[in-house]
Design brief:
The chain has about 230 residues and is an alpha+beta fold. It folds into two domains: about 90 residues, Translation Initiation Factor IF3, CATH 3.30.110; about 100 residues, Alpha-Beta Plaits (2-Layer Sandwich). The protein has four helices and nine strands. The two termini are about 45 Å apart.
Length: about 230
Amino acid sequence: MKSQSRVFAALPTAEYTEIKENQQGLEPKAVTGQVREVQVTGAAEASCPADRASMRFRVTSSKESAGEVTVSITRRLDYILQALRQHGIRGDDTSVRKFLQRNADTYCMDAEVVVVFSNFEKMEQVRSVLLEKLDRSVFVGTPQFYHSPECLGQIRQRACVSAVENAQQKASEISQVLGQSLGPPLLVREKETREWKVVEEEQRSAPHIPVVTASSCVSVSFSFRDRNRKKL
C-alpha cells in the first residue's frame, strides 16, 4: 500500500501578534480566538483481486425427434446441476437456458448453464468433475473473473481509511516536532479518488485474475491543544 502526505501548520500566538503590531507602529491588543491547527493532505492505495468468476457449461444433442433430444439434454443437465449442488453452489448463482431448433429431419438442442462462483477452489473442482464424467459431451468455458459491488466498496473504503490514518500519523509527528499536543480533527475531506484495473499476463496453466486498485486523497485539519489551559 502506497501513501504520502503534505503538511501545513498554523501556530499564531499572542506574542507573535504583539511583535508584528509593534513593528508596524500599532498599539498591541489582546488576541482571542487564535487559530491553532495543522492541515495534512494524506493519500493511500488499496488493492484486491477479483472475488467472483462466471463460468459457462454447454451441452448439445441432435436426435430424430424432439422428445429424444430433450431426454438426452435433460440427463446431462441434471448431472451438471447435481454436481453443483454437491459442491455447495446455490440455485441463486445458477441460470439455465435451452435452445431447440429443427434442421431438416433432425432436432437440435443446445443447453447452457451459467454459474457464478465466489470460491475459486470449488470452481476448479466442479470443472474437473464434469470434464472427467461427461468428457467431450460438455463444453466448459473459460472463467470470467470480476469484482462484486461489495468488494469494490470495501476497496474504496480501505483506501480512504488508510489515507486518513496516514494523515493522522503525519500530523502527530509534526505536532511533536513543533512541541505541540495534537487535538481532535476539525475537518476531514476526501479530495480525490481514482480506480484502475491491473491485468497481468495469462499463465499457460491458468487464466489471469484481475486486480483492482483504488486510491484516495484526503485533507484533514487537526487542532492543537492549549497546553497552558489549566486542568480542572
